[in-house]
């Protein structure tokens, strides 16, 4: 006899479990929830003996795992719509960055913002993500680039989780850009990030993973290697913005350090991808940035498939390259621009995204023992999640078994 807090029934399930039906689908399903976790999930016909304090009937709606946005820069000050206009006028992202705009202009605005300001503006963007079925969000620092401002961003990110009702995983992205005050001495900034800011943030419990931007306009593989060594010594997992605008050996570097994920990877080569496969590194694909930068070289999807690399999809929500605050929009873009199948994309927004955050034991599939983080959809087929662009498909969400 299962004593449950809640029975969810009269629904179709996309469990996203591997190896069986497409989408791990169960046509007439049920879920028992106890203490915020899935106590049982399967076909209604197989429901074990149970008592449920509450019964939710979903009139045949589809239930998926709550979506996981595993790569965002949700916390930042101001916006960069002016640079968007410049790019529409012909300027490139690199030109703007080298002229002192780009990430550095968000750094200026983020330093000026209070922690409360940062939380308030991030919560607005979070509302867009939640309306698209998201229950877990990764949030990076990287627009502070001094000790106090990086800590301010990471504290704001933790508060976004607590006040916004989502699970949040934080990443310290100190090596995102060289801040203006270190332009003449980048080595000193790397020292500061590695030896002082990361340990301080970690000591406050603000860091779930360590990220970096490996690119000619950002940081070299040697500089990132120094940071990753430090992360390793602190017992923190790493991930990397790799090979987005050029092939700089980022995918191979991520593999060398057993990273959770290598993200973007438009320009990764086959050797890098083979190394990722061997090391179990997830490829996080970011079609919002690809769209907004009018990129023309998509990530090497066939090579990733061929090597069996897990592919996640995320919004990369940020003020520069991807002002995208809808997970469903990112999913549609991944299908249309990268030719992923809707099933690959939904796995990328659930099971593989959980792996990219090192959280696969808790979230990402509908499975007994995992958190009851669910999204309920007004659709007839799971592929509709990728098919509609901008339609309000979400009926409701559960987080830790609670509707909200
Ligand atoms: O993921 N590539 C580096 N970071 C962001 C862009 C940040 C920005 O332009 O503000 C990205 O695309
Ligand atoms: Fe990013």
UniProtKB/TrEMBL annotation:
EC code: 3.5.2.7
Domain Amidohydrolase-related: 62-379
Cofactor binding summary note: Binds 1 zinc or iron ion per subunit.
Residues reported to bind 4-imidazolone-5-propanoate: 80, 143, 176, 244, 321
Cofactor(s) the protein requires to work: Zn(2+); Fe(3+)
Domain of life: Bacteria
Recorded metabolic or biological pathway in which this protein acts: Amino-acid degradation; L-histidine degradation into L-glutamate; N-formimidoyl-L-glutamate from L-histidine: step 3/3
Residues reported in the UniProt entry to bind N-formimidoyl-L-glutamate: 143, 318, 320
Record keywords: Cytoplasm, Histidine metabolism, Hydrolase, Iron, Metal-binding, Zinc
Record localization: Cytoplasm
Keyword match Metal-binding: yes
Name of the protein in question: Imidazolonepropionase
Source organism: Brevundimonas abyssalis TAR-001
């Amino acid at each position: 006899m299962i004593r449950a807090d809640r029975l969810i029934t009269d629904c179709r399930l996309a469990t996203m479990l591997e190896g069986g039906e497409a989408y791990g689908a169960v046509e007439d399903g049920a879920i028992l929830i106890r203490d915020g976790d899935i106590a049982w999930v399967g076909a209604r016909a197989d429901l074990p003996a149970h008592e449920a304090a509450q019964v939710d009937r979903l009139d045949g709606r589809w239930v998926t795992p709550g979506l996981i946005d595993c790569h965002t820069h949700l916390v930042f000050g101001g916006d960069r719509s002016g640079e968007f206009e410049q790019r529409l006028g012909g300027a490139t992202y690199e030109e703007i960055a080298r002229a002192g705009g780009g990430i550095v202009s968000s750094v200026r605005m983020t330093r000026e913002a209070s922690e409360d300001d940062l939380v308030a503006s991030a919560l607005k963007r979070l509302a867009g993500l939640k309306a698209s079925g998201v229950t877990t969000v990764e949030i990076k620092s990287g627009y502070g680039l001094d000790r106090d401002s990086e800590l301010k961003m990471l504290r704001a990110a933790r508060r976004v989780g607590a006040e916004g009702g989502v699970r949040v995983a934080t990443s310290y992205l100190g090596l995102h850009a060289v801040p203006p005050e270190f332009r003449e001495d980048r080595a000193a900034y790397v020292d500061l990030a590695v030896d002082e800011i990361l340990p301080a943030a970690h000591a406050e419990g603000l860091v779930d993973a360590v990220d970096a931007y490996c690119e000619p306009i950002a940081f070299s593989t040697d500089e990132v290697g120094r940071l990753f060594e430090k992360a390793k010594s602190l017992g923190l997992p790493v991930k990397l913005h790799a090979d987005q605008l050029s092939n700089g050996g980022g995918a191979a570097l991520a593999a060398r350090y057993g990273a959770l994920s290598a993200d973007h990877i438009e320009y990764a080569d086959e050797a890098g991808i083979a190394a990722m496969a061997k090391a179990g590194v997830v490829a996080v694909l970011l079609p919002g940035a690809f769209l907004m930068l009018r990129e023309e070289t998509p990530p090497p999807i066939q090579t990733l498939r061929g090597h069996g690399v897990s592919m996640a999809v995320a919004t990369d929500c940020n003020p520069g390259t991807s002002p995208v605050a809808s997970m469903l929009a990112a999913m549609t873009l991944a299908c249309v621009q990268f030719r992923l199948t809707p099933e690959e994309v939904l796995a990328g927004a659930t099971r593989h995204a959980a792996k990219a955050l090192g959280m696969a034991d808790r979230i990402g599939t509908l499975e007994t023992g995992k958190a009851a983080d669910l999204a309920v959809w007004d659709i007839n087929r799971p592929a509709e999640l990728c098919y509609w662009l901008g339609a309000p498909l979400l009926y409701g969400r559960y987080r830790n078994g609670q509707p909200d």
